[in-house]
């Protein structure tokens, strides 16, 4: 799936991933390929992106995530 993480100042990450873990208001949740459409509010915490080659972590202060058609867009603060 394609993952884009964007902040107001710049694009933080853009690439393919097999899993993304996000800090939701009620706790962490994970998104895998072919996930159902989703819009959720994010709180402060770490975003984990897992690809075939590596695991990457980003710290965010909050934001919104939208999932649709194997594309995940995170608008992060």
How would you describe what is shown here?
- The structure is a single chain.
- The protein has 77 residues and is mainly beta.
- The chain has one domain: F0F1 ATP synthase delta/epsilon subunit, N-terminal (ATP Synthase, domain 1, Sandwich), CATH 2.60.15.10.
- The chain is built from no helices and nine strands.
- The strands form two sheets. Strands 2-1-9-8-5 form a five-stranded mixed sheet, with no helix packed on it. Strands 4-3-6-7 form a four-stranded antiparallel sheet, with no helix packed on it.
- A hairpin with a 4-residue loop joins β6 and β7.
- It is globular and about 25 Å long.
- The model has no long low-confidence stretch (mean pLDDT 96).
